[in-house]
Amino acid sequence: LNDSARAVELLEPLARANPDDNQLRLQLASALLGTGRSEEAIKLFEQGLKDDPDNAQARMALAVSQIQSGATEAGVGQLEHLIQAKPDSLQANQLLILSHLQNRKFDKATVVAEAMIKATPKNPEAYNLLGTVQLAATDLDAARKSFKIALDKDGKFAPAMLNLARVEERAKNTSAASDWYQKTINADPRN
């Protein structure tokens, strides 16, 4: 048995014995996800959110499990709900953008990234996300500009440097790409 299976083995009888314990219910839902029992996990997350609609962690887990199980629109709805409540939620914004990119909905991904910039104008990650969307849409000039703005916010922000290298690779500027890779390594030798 893996850790998730052992957790389910322990938590299922406890949850049956304590049906009103929402924390226990949510722990069981997370463990069920780890065993691939997504449908059961989704039902428990939904029930948990009825009892505690402001539980951002449970809402995020529900969104991820819905997207993974193919209920993408439901998962997107959960992420949008999270972002509406907390526009600067990096994880929710990242997941929502990723979901839109996987479905090639570049306009929707751009709207999410721009809203995050509006909510957190000093955060380099917001500009990096916008650049990532632009890079995926093959708008290299716009992507380059966004990644450079991210670096203006934080001159050692390695993800933007790495993404600038990718932009230059796609633009067939191998020398510039190499320079950005070197800058990434120089910013943090662990890269």
Q: Can you walk me through this structure?
A:
By secondary structure, this protein is mostly helical. Helix content is 79%, strand content 0%. It has eleven helices and no strands. The chain has helices spanning 3-17, 22-34, 38-51, 56-68, 72-85, 90-102, 106-119, 124-136, 140-153, 158-170, 174-187. Helix 1 (3-17) packs antiparallel against helix 2 (22-34), helix 2 runs antiparallel to helix 3 (38-51) and helix 6 (90-102) runs parallel beside helix 8 (124-136). It is elongated. 35% of the residues are buried.
Protein traits:
single chain; 191 residues; mainly alpha; 0% strand
Report the count of strand segments.
Answer: 0
As a whole number of angstroms, the C-alpha radius of gyration is 20 Å
SSE succession: HHHHHHHHHHH
Largest sheet: none
Helix percent band: over 70%
Structural class: mainly alpha
What's the rounded overall pLDDT mean?
92
So how many helices? 11
> Spans with pLDDT under 50 lasting ≥5 residues?
none
Task: Kindly estimate the percentage of residues that lie in beta strands according to DSSP.
Answer: under 5%
SSE blueprint:
Elements lengths: L2 H15 L4 H13 L3 H14 L4 H13 L3 H14 L4 H13 L3 H14 L4 H13 L3 H14 L4 H13 L3 H14 L4
What would a concise description of this structure say?
This protein is an all-alpha fold and 191 residues long. It is built from 11 helices and no strands.
